[in-house]
Amino acid sequence: MQITPMGDSSMLVEVGPVADEATLERVLGVARALASALLPGVTDIVPSFNTVTVHYDPVAIPAGAGSPVARVAEWLRLTATAAKPIAGVPGREVVVPVCYGGEFGPDLTAVARRAGLDEAEVIRVHSSVRYRVAAVGFAPGFPYLLGLPARLHMPRRANPRVSVPMGSVGIGGSQTGVYPFATPGGWQLIGRTPLRFFRPESRLPSLLYPGDYLRFKPIAASEWTEGPPVEAPGPSPTKPSGLSKWTRLIPGRAARAPAKAAPVADAPVTVTEPPPQGLIEILRVGGLTTVQDLGRTGWQRVGVTPGGAMDRQAARVANLLLGNPENSPLLESALTGPELCFHAETWIAVTGAVVEGVAGWRPLRMAAGTRLSLGKVTRGAHLYVAVAGGIAVPPMLGGSGTLLRAEFGGFQGRALRTGDRLGVGPSTVALDRSRGDWAAAWEFWTAHGSEAKVRFVRGRSWPAFDELARTAFTTTAWRIGPQSDRMGLRLAGPVLTAALPGELISSGVTFGAVQVPPNGQPIVLMADRQTLGGYPKIAHVISVDLPLLAQARPGDTVRFTEIPVAEAQVCAAELEKSLALLRLGVAAKLKG
Questions:
Q1: CA of 379: how far to CAs of 91, 449, 490, in Å?
Q2: Residue 223 banded pLDDT, cuts 50, 70, 90
Q3: CA contacts within 13 A on the Cβ side of 271
Q4: Is 72 left (phi over 0), alpha (psi -120 to 50) or beta?
Q5: Which of 389, 418, 433, 501 makes a 20 to 30 Å CA pair with 263?
Q6: Cα(514)–Cα(474) distance, integer angstroms
Q7: Residue 168 forms beta bridges with which residues?
Q8: How far is it, in rounded angstroms, from Cα 154 to Cα 132?
Q9: CA-to-CA distance for 64 and 75, rounded, in angstroms?
Q10: How would DSSP label each residue in 415-466?
Q11: pLDDT tens digits, residue range 249-295?
Q12: DSSP class of residue 145?
C-alpha cells in the first residue's frame, strides 16, 4: 500500500497495482475504514479501481507534531493498513434495460465487425455478464464497470462525438459504462437506456456507487420509453439492500466525525425559490456569467466535481467586504463582465479582474435603478460581483454553484441570459449610505499581469518524466491556449514525454493538477475538472496560487517553480490569517 501527496490538499492511497474485483474489495474496505475514523478536515473520500483519494483542508487538520500533510499521512497509514476487504458483502444489483443497435447504438455494427461476431452475439455477450461498479466519475453518476468480456474490448473512437445522448451505453478499451448526461465522448456506442442514472434533486443522487452490481437487459425498440427517464426497477436507490450505507455517506455519520466535517450526504435537500421579481436584472450577459460559490464537498465519489469559483480568493474577499458569509452565492464572469440593473438599493463588491471605470475590491452602493456596465475588463480573466445578502438560488447537494455539464445548481443549472432576474437573500449586516469606506489591501488582488508565476509540488508521475522534460517544465514560459475553460487551462510549449509501462488506471484528481496527455502539452485542471483522470500528473499547483491561474487569459504565459508540500501548507495558513484579519476589520467597520 503506497501513500502519496497530491498537491497540498489531497492524498492518494494506492491499494494494489491492478484493477480487478479483489483489489476493488480492498479499496472499499480502506474507504470504509477511513470514513469510520474520519479525521477532522477531511472533505472527500473517493474510492476507485485500485486507489482511494482523500481530499482535505490543510488549515482544518487538527494541530499536532509536524505539518498537516504528515499528520494526514500518519492517519492514512494507521487506518488504511488495518482495514479489511469487504469480500462476501453483496452489493446492490441494478438491472438496466437497454435498447441495442440502430439509432440507439450507432456503433454496434462496427463493434460486431471488429470483434468478429454478429450483432446478436455482441448483444448476448454484453448482456450476459454481472458487472461490478469499480468507480463513478467522468460525469456525475457515470459508472465504470469491471467484467467486460475480452472479445468486446474496443479502442475509443479516433474522433470523439461532440455530444453523446443521455443514457447511451458505450465501450471504451476494457471498460463499459453509461452516459448519465448528454456530453462529449469517445466511447463506442452500442445501445441506450431510458433509466435515469443521476438525480441531483435527490438526497442520494447516484443510481450506482462503487461496489454495486449491474446487469444489462436487452429490450426491443417498441419498449423504449419516450419522455422523462424512468427510475430504476428493483431495490430503491435510497434503501441499499446489500452494501452497507457507508458508501453513500462518505464523509458522514462516522462516530468520531467532527461537527464541522463534510455534510452528511443523505441530509434533506432544502429548496428555496428566489423571488419572482428579482432585485438584479441581466441587461447584457458579457462573457460566460454564472452563479458560483466556493464549491461542493462530499460528492466526488459519485462524479460530482466540487466546482465553485475559479478564483476562490477573489470570491471570498468580495463577500467578506459586504459582511456576507464567505460561501454566499455570487456572480462570476469570464473575460467580459455583464451589464446589470439594480431594481432596489443595495451594496455590491467587484473583485477579481480589473474593470475600467469601476472601483474594485471595496463596497459600492447601488441606488435603485442603477445600471452598471462591467464590460471592459482591462486585466485578469474572471470577475466577481457579490451583493449584500448573496444571490438567492436553491442549494443542491450542499452547494449553490452552477455545474454546467451536469445542468444543475446556480440559476436553473445554466449560464445567465439577457432578461434573467436574480433575487437576493437577507443581509445580516446594516450597510447604510455613510459606510462603505473600506477596501481590501493590494495583497489580496489576484489579477497582476500577463505572466502568472506559480509554485507547484511534484506529482505522482514526476519520476516518469526524464530530466529533459522536468527541466523544460520548470524553465518554459508556457502559453495558455484559446481552448482553456473552467475545466482546464491548456498550455502550449515543449513536448513533455513520460516513460510509462502502459495505460494508467484512472484515479482521483485535484484542482491544480497538471496532467500531460499523449500530445505532451500540459493541462492544468481547474474548478470544473472531472473527479477521475488517467493521464500522468507531473505536478500540482499549490492552492494559494490557483487564483493567479484563474486570472490568466488565453495568450498569457505561466511559469512554474517547485516548493515542498509542507511549505505550500504554510502559505495556505498565512493566507487564512490575512483573511481572518480582513474579516475582523470589516466587522469593526460595520459596527461603526
A1: 53, 7, 20
A2: confident
A3: 9
A4: alpha
A5: 389
A6: 12
A7: 192
A8: 19
A9: 12
A10: ---TT-EEEEPPPSS---TT-------GGG-----SEEEEEEEE-TTGGGB-
A11: 332 222 222 233 333 233 333 334 444 457 999 999 999 999 999 99
A12: E
Instruction: Give the whole-angstrom CA distance, residue 156 versus residue 387.
Output: 46
C-alpha grid cell, residue 563: 516548493
Query: Chain-centre distance of CA 255, in angstroms?
Result: 27
Question: What is the total residue count of the chain?
Answer: 592
Kindly give, in sequence order, each residue whose CB lies less than 8 Å from that of residue 54, ignoring residues fewer than 6 positions away. Answer: 10, 11, 12, 13, 34, 42, 44, 45, 46, 72, 76
Distance CA 526, CA 493 (A): 19
Q: What is the pTM of this model?
A: 0.89
- 107 CB-contact burial (10 Å; exposed 0-12 / middle 13-18 / buried 19+): buried
The pLDDT tens digits of the residues spanning 189-222 come to 999 999 999 999 888 899 999 999 999 999 998 8
Which of 107, 111, 95, 125 has the alpha carbon at shortest distance from 193? 95
DSSP one-letter string for 170-191:
EEEBTEEEE-SS-EEE-SEEEE
Query: Worst-scoring range by mean pLDDT, 65-69, 298-302, 428-432?
Result: 428-432
Taking the C-alpha atoms of residue 549 and residue 130, their distance in angstroms, rounded to an integer, is: 44
Angle between helices 68-81 and 21-36 (to 10 degrees): 120
Cell for 439? 477596501
Instruction: Please state the separation of Cα 267 from the chain's center in Å.
Output: 20
Nearest residue to 552 via CA among 479, 483, 493, 492 = 479
> Cell match 494494489: residue?
16
Phi, psi of 70 (to 5 degrees): -70, -40
DSSP state of 299: -
Q: What is the pLDDT of residues 91-123, one digit of tens each?
A: 689 999 999 999 999 999 999 999 999 999 999
Burial of 157 (0-12, 13-18, 19+ CB in 10 A): middle
8 A C-beta contact, residue 451 and residue 477: yes
- All residues at 6 or more sequence positions from 47 whose CB lies less than 8 Å from its CB, including other chains: 27, 28, 30, 31, 135, 210, 211, 247, 301
Q: Given a cut of 80, is residue 436 above it in pLDDT?
A: no
In sequence order, which ranges of 59-132 are alpha helices (DSSP H)?
Answer: 68-81, 108-115, 119-127
* Cα–Cα nearest to 569, from 448, 457, 461: 457
- Strand-pair partners of 175: 172
Please name the residue that has the C-alpha cell 505539518: 67
Q: Which domains occur in the chain, in start order?
A: 2-88 (3.30.1360.40), 93-223 (2.40.100.10), 280-444 (no CATH), 451-568 (2.40.100.10)
Identify the three-state secondary structure at position 122: helix
CA distance 55 to 42: 6
- Smallest Cα–Cα separation from 211: which of 23, 406, 2? 23
What's the rounded Cα separation, in Å, for the pair 240 and 251?
17
Task: Count Cβ atoms below 10 Å from residue 51 Cβ, excluding itself.
Answer: 25
Do 343 and 281 form a contact (C-beta atoms < 8 A)?
A: yes
Q: Cα separations (Å) of 195 from 168, 206, 259?
A: 10, 12, 37
